[in-house]
Amino acid sequence: MMNTDTVLRYYQSSLCFSTLLLIVEKIIFGSFSEYPNDLHMVMADWSKLPDDLLKVIAKRLNSAEDYASFGAVCKSWYSIFGDKECGRSGLKSPWLMLAEKKDSDFRQFYSPLTGKVYEIPVPEAAGKWSWGSPYGWLVTLSTHFDMSLLNPITGIHIPLPSLHACPHMNVPEKSQSNDIFIYKAVLSSSPSSPECAVVIIYSDYGRLALTKPGHRTWTLLESDYGPVEDIIYFDGSFLAVNMSWEVWMYDVSGSEMKTIRFAPAPLVHEIDEIEYEAKYLVEAGGEIYMVIRNLYDTARRDIPYMRTWTFSVMKLDMSSKRWEDVEDMEHSTFFLGNNHSFSTSASDYPEFRRNTIYFTDDYCGFLDIPRNFDMGIYNFHDTQIEHYPVGHEALSVFSAPLWIKPSFS
What we know:
Blueprint: H1 4-14, H2 18-31, H3 36-42, H4 51-59, H5 64-71, H6 75-79, H7 84-87, E1 95-97, E2 106-111, E3 116-121, E4 129-131, E5 138-141, E6 147-150, E7 157-159, E8 182-187, E9 198-202, E10 207-211, E11 219-221, E12 228-234, E13 237-242, E14 247-251, E15 258-263, E16 276-284, E17 287-297, E18 306-317, E19 322-325, E20 332-336, E21 342-345, E22 356-359, E23 376-379, E24 385-386, E25 402-404
Parallel strand pairs: 20-22
Antiparallel strand pairs: 1-2, 1-25, 2-3, 4-5, 5-6, 6-7, 8-9, 9-10, 10-11, 12-13, 13-14, 14-15, 16-17, 17-18, 18-19, 20-21, 22-23, 23-24
């Protein structure tokens, strides 16, 4: 695990403190403006600020960027994040975690909020596949099939059972860089919750397995209805969509897990030009959406080179359990790809465009070939795709770019 000194030294050398200082000045001099000169002298040593005042400042921070700057001042400021009220306040704007660079323990994170790229040491993720989540944690997998939960900002690492602990999975002894065994991993909540569960989609047959932090093995979930393409956590249960477009619910809250057919397949009009399609489930505003990502093969050789062409979206009528075509995503933004699919609202996250889909490449690891990633921003109104301003130069079959909501808890 990354130690505190390493984190502090790095943040002190690389992050801008302008936002932090403005917040400090507003809080301090807004209340004590009649003593500005004395306060400038007293507060020259920032480490001597009382904890109560630091907590007031920390509670007013609204972004991961501000949190990073705040914790970089000194150890006493960084230690304030140990307070539960301070460590979890405010909204955390999603970051794009870029692909790993060869022979480097540092990972780059792009923040659309500031338009900046932050480099943070994440040695625990080197040479591993990773999947992002809206809870600030990664699920990682090594070539020896050891798995863990990792907070890339704090370096906190929670081991999960090795896949070899489940004999019915038929796990190979060791994986090569282009041998994909796990296709996706999702969390039900932050690991700080005692109810946190992890579900993976594994093998070429799209099967499911579940575990929890502290457990010693994986529990296989029933998936006789066909290969699973995506899975999310919704209202106390996991929802999975299979290749036949059906949605099944896994209730894992009781002593016995229940599998229920949640929604039938929608009526789909086939498009001749489409060669491949990927399905995703997303929760937004308490509603369930199914997103279809249409892809085509641009290769002129025998090696597939898929690119996203367009998206279509359907919303589930919860009363009739029927799917309805969506012409407008209203005020939502979807984040799909190499992460637990999630959404944000334009009112909470104005830095992201409403009615758009931010997507990353979640199939690049199938082939061990050098190429750019298929990722970008899909505008639902004009059906145009805009490329991200960063992330195209680093190629890695181990860890493609992914979206994550950073967390300091």
